[in-house]
C-alpha cells in the first residue's frame, strides 16, 4: 500500500507527502510470521485508509467535472455524445499504446505488434468520429479544447490530445498507481465487513481484559491497604501494652524504694 502511495506522491498534482511507514522487503517474512501468531487486523486498517484515499480522489473528480461545466461552452446532448465518442476512442488508443510499449519492453514482440495493429483500427475509427464531431458544430467552437476528467485518477484529458500524450497518461505512474489502489481496495472490501466485525469483537474482549486487570489491581490494593492498617493497629496495640507494662513496673519500683526509706 505504501509503495503505491509513494508512486502518487512523486506527482506534484497529487502530492500527499512521504509515507511514514517502513517499507522493507526484508521485513515482509517477519510480518507474515507475526501475523500467523497474532491477528493484527492490518487488512482492516489498510481497507479504511484506501477507502479514504479513493473517496478523496472521487471528490476531486466530481469537483473537476463541475468546474468544467461552469467554464466550458455547454454542448447540446447530440454534440456531447459525439464528443464523448471521440474521447472514448482516444482513451482506448492511449491505453492500448501504453500496453503495447510495456509488452515491447518485456520482450514480447509478437504481442506488442498485435496491439499496434489494433491501434491502427482504432485510429481510423477515431478519425471518422472526429469528422462527425467537427461537422456538428462551428469551426470556432471545435477548435476550443474540450476537456473531460479521467475517472481513475481525476486528471484532465483533452479531446485534441495526441496519441503520445494519452499513452503517457494511461501508462504513467499516477494513473497506473490509482489502478493498483482501486484493484487492491476492491479485493480488500470483499471481506471487510467480516474482518471489521472480528476486530470489533477482539477490541471488546481486550477492553474487558483491561478492565478486569484494573479491577483486580484495585481489589489487591484494597486488601494490601487493609492488611497494612491492621498491622499498624497491631503494632500500636503492642506498643501501648508495653508502655502500660513499663509504667506499672516503674510504679512498683517507686513503692519499693519508699518502703525501704521508712
Automatic annotation (TrEMBL):
Pfam families, sorted: LUC7
Cellular component, GO annotation: U1 snRNP
GO BP term, pick one: mRNA splice site recognition
Region (Disordered) residue spans: 198-262
Basic residues: bias regions: 226-262
Molecular function terms from GO: mRNA binding
Coiled-coil residue windows: 65-132
Transmembrane segments: none
Residue stretches of biased makeup (Basic and acidic residues): 198-225
Keywords of this entry: Coiled coil
PANTHER family: RNA-BINDING PROTEIN LUC7-RELATED (PTHR12375)
Record family assignment: Belongs to the Luc7 family.
Name of the protein described by the UniProt record: Putative RNA-binding protein Luc7-like 1 isoform X2
Biological source species: Aphis craccivora (Cowpea aphid)
Amino acid at each position: 500500500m505504501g509503495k503505491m502511495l509513494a508512486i502518487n506522491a512523486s506527482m506534484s498534482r497529487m502530492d500527499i507527502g512521504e509515507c511514514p511507514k517502513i517499507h522493507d522487503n526484508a521485513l515482509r517474512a517477519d510480518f507474515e510470521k507475526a501475523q500467523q501468531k497474532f491477528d493484527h487486523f492490518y487488512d482492516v486498517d489498510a481497507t479504511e485508509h484506501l477507502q479514504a484515499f479513493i473517496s478523496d480522489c472521487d471528490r476531486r473528480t466530481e469537483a473537476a467535472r463541475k468546474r468544467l461545466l461552469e467554464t466550458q461552452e455547454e454542448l447540446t446532448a447530440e454534440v456531447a455524445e459525439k464528443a464523448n465518442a471521440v474521447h472514448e476512442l482516444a482513451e482506448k488508443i492511449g491505453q492500448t499504446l501504453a500496453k503495447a510499449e510495456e509488452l515491447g519492453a518485456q520482450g514480447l514482440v509478437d504481442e506488442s505488434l498485435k496491439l499496434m495493429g489494433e491501434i491502427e483500427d482504432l485510429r481510423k475509427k477515431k478519425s471518422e468520429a472526429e469528422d462527425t464531431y467537427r461537422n456538428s458544430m462551428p469551426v470556432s467552437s471545435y477548435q476550443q479544447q474540450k476537456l473531460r476528467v479521467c475517472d481513475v485518477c481525476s486528471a484532465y484529458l483533452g479531446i485534441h490530445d495526441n496519441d503520445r500524450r494519452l499513452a503517457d497518461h494511461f501508462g504513467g505512474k499516477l494513473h497506473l498507481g490509482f489502478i493498483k489502489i482501486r484493484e487492491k481496495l476492491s479485493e480488500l472490501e470483499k471481506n471487510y465487513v467480516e474482518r471489521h466485525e472480528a476486530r470489533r469483537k477482539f477490541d471488546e474482549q481486550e477492553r474487558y481484559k483491561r478492565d478486569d486487570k484494573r479491577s483486580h489491581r484495585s481489589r489487591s490494593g484494597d486488601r494490601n491497604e487493609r492488611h497494612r492498617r491492621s498491622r499498624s493497629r497491631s503494632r500500636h496495640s503492642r506498643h501501648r501494652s508495653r508502655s502500660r507494662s513499663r509504667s506499672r513496673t516503674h510504679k512498683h519500683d517507686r513503692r519499693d524504694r519508699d518502703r525501704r526509706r521508712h
